[in-house]
Amino acid sequence: MRKRLIYGINSFVLLCSVFATSGGMSSVSANEAEHTVKNVILVIPDGLGLTTTNLARWYQGGKPLFLDKYVSGLVRTYPTESLTTDSAAAATAYATGYKTVSESLAVLPSVVAMPGIATPKPGEVNKPIPTILEAARLNGMSTGLVFTCELVDATPAAFVSHALKRDEAESIAEQMVYSGVDVVLGGGSDYLIPGKEGSNRKDGEDLTKVLETNGYTYVTTKKEMLNTKANRLWGLFAPEGLDADIEHDPQVQPNLAEMTKKAIDTLSSNKEGFFLMVEASNIDWFGHDNDPIGMISETLAYDRALKVAIDFAKKDGHTAVVSVADHNTGGLYLSNYDDTMEKMNAVLSKAKLTSHAVKDKINEDKSNLKEVLAQDYGLTDLTGEDIEQIKKSIDEDNFSKVVGPMLGEKVGISFATEEHTAEEVLLVAYHPNNFKPTDYAKSGVIENTDVNKYLQSIMNLDLEPLGQTLFASSDAFTAKGATVTVDKSDALNPVVTVTKGTNLLKLPVDKNIAVLDGKTIQLNALTLSINGKIWLSQEAVDLIN
């Protein structure tokens, strides 16, 4: 049992006793113990479907993808209320071992309409649930997140924040900064810095200053990332999401493989091990846009990052890698009855940029539209009707969803939808003892929640007891005879205030700090307000006698 739990004294004792007696960290069977590893890397190719991997193979001349050697099954993706999931519910399943409703992040579901899913107990609807990253951190392991979207997007957010709705960006960003995660690399700097034009931060708090105060190094360029030796590192390389791999500036933005390697190099210095989640975020974005070039670009970038992870795991000998999409996006399919691979690639290879970058090169008066589409996207021989449709799509902000299918039509690529689809996704896994999630679940087709349970098993963790110690109701204060109120005088920075006798305890929402009678105390869990209900750690409750 690893006992390096960085926690308050009372809660440390409680956690250790709970883990020892409730089927937790000390209860792993002898057979499972043989499969325990030191490090775990979870790679999520957001929106990657089976046909997209097929297209990527043909695009590179029919050669296998790196992932092909490690495919080990299929994963079902549905949430609690429907057949088709969003990224928030899917990432919640991977992060916590619980299914939830779409749009929610690491909280119990408010609706259960699918079979085989337990309904939350009374009073626990929307209760926050601990994540594998939170458990790893409390167990002394280093933790990291790597992604190509903005930091508040659903997948990275689900591993370190808790919210009823995934669009609560300001709250999510603040939770992430105060979460204690060691390495964060990706996009979304506008969610940290207030005041600047276009900023998504409205509460006036510069979260980059908070990072620096808490001992992080904050970088914004690839060179800075590569040169720093810091063991606590945040790197955000764009105001929103990063550019597509096919068109990013390698002097400014690192690619997914480079960020993955940097995160591994940084986290692997911890003798207690590490947990790292890597997301190839933008396969999903281009799937929504029906842009085959963007989907190919980001799928190949994912495959290269996966290689970095598995190469490290093989060399290290104590690392497991699991890779699985959250869902498919776009419903891409191939119907090339008349085209060979060579004919298809003769068209696709002419596209040098994604539809996003192509649109940015078109003049405001659209005078160079035909030239740009031919030179940078491979769209030639356009009819007058095609040109008018494309011009209209620019005015209606629907450009990608018009030119992507136009390009696809030339080579037998079609899209069923602009949304997610419900089919199973590929499971890819490497374990030094060849113990896969399918072996753990004893099935070739597993649930997305099984992935989390497998991770708990090989990391020798048990998330269930943490739910009581990390997320107690504020009613626990009332039971002690204390009075609980929420100070909303600063509406964007609410503070939970607890009074009992002469004691005054203040707990800022979305932060891991407490102020007891004027003295600031750092906690190892966040104070949360979810749908009007306050949740906080047992450590915070113990501060009031």
Automatic annotation (TrEMBL):
Cofactor note: Binds 1 Mg(2+) ion. Binds 2 Zn(2+) ions.
MF term (GO), any: alkaline phosphatase activity
Gene3D superfamilies per record: Alkaline phosphatase, crown domain, Alkaline Phosphatase, subunit A
Cleavable signal peptide: 1-22
Active site: S87
Assigned keywords, A-Z: Magnesium, Metal-binding, Phosphoprotein, Signal, Zinc
Protein residues bound to Zn(2+): D46, D284, H288, D326, H327, H420
Annotated InterPro entries: Alkaline_phosphatase (IPR001952), Alkaline_phosphatase_core_sf (IPR017850), Ap_crown (IPR042085), Mao_N_sf (IPR036582)
Cofactor: Mg(2+); Zn(2+)
Residues bound to Mg(2+): D46, D153, T155, E279
Family membership noted in the UniProt record: Belongs to the alkaline phosphatase family.
Name by which UniProt lists this protein: Alkaline phosphatase
Species annotation: Paenibacillus sp. SYP-B3998
